[in-house]
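Pinned message: reference record for Siderophore-interacting protein
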Amino acid sequence: MGRESRAYWLDSGDRAAVTLRLEWDALTVRGARRATVPRTEFRRVDASDGVIELEAASGAQYRFQVGRAATDWAEALSRPPRPLDQKLGVGPEVPIAVRGALPVRALAEALVESPRVAPWEADLVFAVVYDDAELEALPVWLAETGVVAPVWVIHGKGRDCDAPGDAAVRAAMHEAGRHEAATSAIAECWSATQYALGKP
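Predicted structure (tokens):
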């Protein structure tokens, strides 16, 4: 899961209440003001007196008051993100199966080196759920194809995504006898939760 904190966006003497969320690929700001700053754009990060200052490659500057967490936030913002393929545990030696169209290029690029095999032969399965019908059908498909490997379910994240969210996915997968094993942000509107057979 990404780092998240309530904060105030400081701009020319004004304060706007916002929520900061740091995912693997971007810092997102939601609330009274909104922004998305890709981590590849971070150029300078400082923390002082409870305020973090961030300068982007475009020259845009951001100041957020987060209190005691400022130093921890600055350190997190300064660390290079782990590549998505590492977060998902894929690579040339990991055979995978994919169900559904991948929703974003970053995910397709992360999976490109993994050999594709039948679902029952895969070390990892990736299943995208765009709507409630696809989510309802997923446990049936897993049972019919004999999938025993961990399954990364790619699902919606946040209010702006129409795809089922983590709560709906969790309920469906728990009913199918699987439990959460890992999570990873994919994009602003998409996240992934890995489910394994049995109880944690």
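Pinned by admin. Summary line: The first strand starts at residue 3 and ends at 11.
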